[in-house]
Model the fold of this input.
Amino acid sequence: MASIWEYANPRKFIRTTDVVLPWVTAAAVLCLVGGLIWGFFFTPEDYRQGSTVKIIYLHVPSALMAINGWLMMLAASLIWIVRRHHVSALAARAAAPVGATMTLIALITGAIWGQPMWGTWWAWDPRLTSFLILFLFYLGYMALWAAIENDDTAADLTSVLCLVGSVFALLSRYAVNFWNQGLHQGATLSMDKQENIADIFWYPLLVCMAGFILLFLALVLLRTRTEIRARRMRALLARERLG
Amino acid sequence: MIALLIRDLKLALRAGGGFGLGLAFFLIVTVLVPFAVGPETGLLARIAPGILWLGALLACLLSLDRIFALDWEDGTLDLMATAPLPMEAIVTLKALAHWLTTGLPLVLAAPLFGLLMSLPGEGYLWLVLSLAIGTPALSVLGTFGAALTVGLKRGGLLLSLLVLPLYVPTLIFGAEVARRGAQGLAVEAPLLLLAGITCGSIALLPFASAAVLRVNLR
Amino acid sequence: MSLTITDLAIARGGIPVLRGLSFSLAAGEALILRGPNGIGKTTLLRTIAGLQPPLAGEISADRELIAYAAHADGIKATLSVEENLRFWAAIYGTGDITPALEGFDLTKLTDRPAGGLSAGQKRRLGLARLMVTGRPIWVLDEPTVSLDVASVALFAQAVQRHLAGGGMALIATHIDLGLDAQVLDVTPFKARAPLRGEDDFDEAFL
Done:
């Protein structure tokens, strides 16, 4: 079997994603449309929360991808540090704005949900606060990428920042928990799901989560392709200058 | 190695070294807060630990870009990188010099500023202790941020954006110690966590700072 | 002890500038590097000094043997001449700065803050630093910038003494120092655009 590292070759990556990307995109659209319609129109209203509960189909999957987006960046950064595959660094760069947007969606849908439930748009609840801090980490990471001209230098520096940032994001999570026990309901996504949320809400949520995962994948693949092409353009320009 | 520390301290203390700027900034913040929230003693006493911690943190942040920028501009950093000092030692000493010229004066001056903020009597010990334990972490983290942004023009704002999220846990635990101390509550848990963060940062971050500094000198 | 460069390729900002460069220096020898501006002499010296990794090839000398002097002198304006030198002497673990002060005619200036020196005097202080490093291989980037004729002669004497003591010097300069040294023009080693598959410079992206 071919080694997985073959896909670290940009040309191989572009060729493979040429084939894969349309399917992933189609699957993402299918899951999202299906899951959201199922969730919004074909589930009963919660007896306490009314129809507001339905925002869960956006809120939970986006929150999931906000965290997994960062984890993906961390993995890609580690691969860059250890094996120095350019595609890996570019994938980390590509994932950051998507992850940041997911974080923002989670924060905004959370606020919209929180307003009728808790009577406030924002509370300094540990989970909300952690997501806000995560958003700041995303911003810093993207700003560092944008500030440095040399691609390899930028990849090196952002990788180390991602590593250190991950540790401190985790620390912040626990610090925030320590600082304020919150209003937020317990985990929606848990092994013993029966305790948290009924099946009838659970299945469409699963579909929506699959949809968000696929959407994230599609966007990251698309953006990585763009980054690879931009990088190729810079390499060609550099070669031009050499004459 | 001690020569580098002594040189940095000398440079900070001589004209244009910026020593005392952080302290003056801390003073100004402390003076401005009552203007913003009103002079009511009860309110000031309640927010004093948090405000003092925040002021110390911002004063610390203010001087971060000087850690490497001057040595970078005049070429000293290149020469130092080829000298027989390991980069890890350079960044550790830089962080130590930053703490001695910025963090330590803040710790020592904090009780005075506590007075201005009508900090309750029980709070002074814990305020000073939490700052003494927490500010080294601020310096070490700041050195990491400064190493990341050393080659960049106008890197100051970016530096703040990178460093401030890293400061969150330290600020939370540090301010929590000061707050609980002022209210006469048990402070052991946040104090130990704060000390843990400081020790961990001092032990591990110099490696990260040295790595990014090497990349930036390339 | 010698400095041997074998088939070296170097890059600036990710773009190859010189390739296929080989030369060697034995104890007591000096090599003058020449070439037009922007050809990559500074990058070459930085690579040899160990500040950046080469793209390919080998540098035989241990980094611990090399003393590097760049365009910028690394002089602190608020420290005196003596303090500046003592700092470097302490960093390199050598004690005596008197020979360095005398060698570059700085003895009268010892107590002056370095910020008050003229450009040429600063340069002399920067070069005096080389003598307190105690390292055998001097790697110098345009050392004579802003030096007057007398100072250039001082510098040439210092290099000669260093060579006589078994040291080596690699100097990028445009002027004639009057040294008995080999001259290497790096122009023929200018990197052409790589052929496809020739090296790993962004190869995958081209």
Notes: Chain C touches chain B through 31 residues (CB under 8 Å). Chain C is about 30% helix and 25% strand.
